[in-house]
Amino acid sequence: MKALTLKLLGALLFMTAIAMWLSRAPDWPVQALVARWAPPPSDFIDVKGQLVHLRDVGLRDDPQPLVLIHGTSASLHTWEGWAKALSARHRVISFDLPGFGLTGPNAQGDYRGDTYARFVLELMDQLQVQRFAIAGNSLGGEVAWRTALLAPQRVTKLILVDAAGPDFSSDSMPIGFLVARVPVLNRIFDWVLPRPLVVASVRNVYGDPSRVNEALVDRYYELALREGNRRALVQRLQQNRRGEDAERIRELKLPTLILWGGRDRLVPPSVGRQFQQDIAGSELVVFDDLGHVPHEEDPAHTLPPVQAFLDRR
């Protein structure tokens, strides 16, 4: 019996080693990704030594551009549907946060919320944008409201899309995030990234997983392989403190639109209701059939309240 158990264990270890070998995925240099993921109108700009991937489209004379900030493990591509539609009437600026997309990790390995907010202000300084509206999803939503708190004289309107902020408990979490949180195991991320793990993680944040296609998975998978991004994800999750500074949200005194996916299992709709309660005069719109990234999952359906909000004086 003992010999049989050892054989089974040996076979399991051998199969695991083969699976890991087949899933090996070394880092890709950013140059190998630019041609596919940074065609025009993409550009790169140096912000205090950080080379930032961004897109700046639409009306050049817009006095108050709209700044779009993506969430954890995403990129500026998540906003393509919104940016294309809104650029007809607005200047729209989107970019990859440090640690994600083609921007890649920062030298200090600091991915805290206020650090990101200061980065946004430095980027706007570099672009010579003084006043702007700001929208963010998930982590990007947290960065957006922190930016509004750091520079209330510069941020004119706030759009929160399934944003982080108040404390909460997830009903479900992408498996990639779970693995990245486990010490020792997360070191495997440096050289292994099974594509099925990415598929499962992206499907987890969609209200309708059937919308997740191969092209979408390609984007998340390949940008995760950008040199340094997997280690940055681990660091970001280690530094994250749910509910940190949530009491500051009540200090926000600007027009605010809150959008939420009714099927969001990562940051549940109750968090959206908490934002509405904390931000005086804010408006909450819930899309019953969408998940954690409603702007990406169905741009056309989520755009009308955004357009109306931006046009409102």
Textual characterization of the structure:
The chain is α/β, with parallel strands linked by helices. The chain has one domain (45-311): Rossmann fold (3-Layer(aba) Sandwich). Helices cover 41% and strands 15% of the residues. The protein has twelve helices and eight strands. The chain has helices at 2-22, 31-37, 80-86, 113-126, 139-150, 175-181, 195-204, 214-224, 229-239, 269-278, 294-297, 299-311; strands at residues 42-47, 50-58, 66-69, 91-95, 132-137, 155-161, 256-261, 283-287. An eight-stranded mixed β-sheet has the order 1-2-4-3-5-6-7-8, sandwiched between helices. Helix 3 packs across helix 12 (299-311) and helix 4 (113-126) packs across helix 5. The longest helix has 21 residues, at 2-22. The model is unreliable at 1-22 (pLDDT under 50).
Main traits of this protein?
313 residues, 8 strands, globular, alpha/beta, single chain, 8-stranded mixed β-sheet, Rossmann fold, disordered N terminus, 15% strand
The CATH superfamily appears as Alpha/Beta hydrolase fold, catalytic domain
Number of DSSP strand runs: 8
Task: Point out poorly predicted stretches.
Answer: 1-22
Q: Tell me the CATH topology.
A: Rossmann fold
Question: N-to-C terminal Cα separation, in Å?
Answer: 77 Å
Number of helices: 12
Helix % is: 40-55%
CATH class descriptor = Alpha Beta
Rg measurement, Å: 20 Å
Element-level helix/strand string = HHEEEHEHEHEHHHHEHEHH
Secondary-structure content class: alpha/beta
Q: Identify the overall geometry.
A: globular
Integer average pLDDT = 91
Structural domain count: 1
Which CATH architecture is right? 3-Layer(aba) Sandwich
Strand order of the largest sheet: 1-2-4-3-5-6-7-8
Strand content: 15-25%
Largest sheet: 8 strands, mixed
